[in-house]
Write a structure and sequence with these properties.
The protein is of the alpha/beta class. The protein is built from nine helices and six strands; from the N terminus they run βααβαβααβαβαβαα. It starts with about 20 loop residues before the first strand and ends with a helix. Strand 4, helix 6 and strand 5 form a beta-alpha-beta unit. Helix content is about 40%, strand content about 15%.
Length: about 210
């Protein structure tokens, strides 16, 4: 990696600590085309967290853009195996402008894989490249990966399922997509545990 690719030094004490960049919302809010917070738009390392089925991949790909290179967890594992053989990351993966990575679920049990991904994030942290990483569906924490990126350069998106009227709006939107009467959405806001998949399944049974 060329020296000019390295990010600038973190701010000194005189400049004050970096502003935190942690934003929460639903996948619809982030992927709907609405204006995003400046910190999400400007920071080059974005970590997307949330429960299973909340829309992490959808949001990550939306944040990275249509031209981003996407690696599923299986493809990340394949890249990790290649790194273990070659002892280096491919130039393409290091220098590609926009990349979405699905975090493998076994990082807490594979210190060598964790260190390898930390190396990749450091290598991609400069030169204006943008990296969006999704939390594993198993809930494997990303703290050790986030820790290698200075807070000034990273942002965290925490996704949640909608509540209240947001649940009703989603169910009505599903009915519209399927060409069903709005009545098919009745009481789906009370489904527990409420997930997008559970609502779609309930509406499909009423079609």
């Amino acid at each position: 990696m060329k020296p000019i690719d390295l990010p600038p030094d973190p701010p000194t004490d005189l400049e004050g600590p970096p502003m935190p960049a942690l934003v929460s919302g639903t996948s619809q809010e982030f992927a709907s085309g609405q204006a995003l917070p400046r910190t999400i738009r400007s920071r080059t390392m974005v970590f997307v967290l949330g429960p299973v089925g909340v829309g992490k991949t959808t949001v990550a790909r939306s944040l990275a853009g249509d031209d981003a290179r996407y690696l599923s967890d299986a493809e990340v594992i394949e890249a990790l195996n290649a790194y273990a053989r070659e002892r280096s990351w491919s130039e393409e993966l290091v220098h590609f402008s926009d990349v979405v990575l699905e975090c493998p679920c076994f990082l807490s049990r594979r210190p060598s894989a964790l260190r390898a991904l930390q190396t990749l994030l450091r290598a991609r942290s400069g030169g204006g490249r943008r990296t969006v990483m999704c939390e594993a569906e198993s809930g494997t924490p990303l703290e050790d990966l986030m820790a290698v990126v200075h807070p000034q350069y990273r942002a965290t998106v925490v996704l949640r399922f909608p509540v209240g009227k947001g649940r009703k709006r989603f169910a009505l939107r599903v009915c519209e997509e399927l060409g069903l009467e709005a009545s098919c959405a009745a009481d789906t806001e009370h489904i527990e545990p409420w997930t997008y998949a559970a609502v779609r399944s309930a509406i499909n049974t009423r079609s």
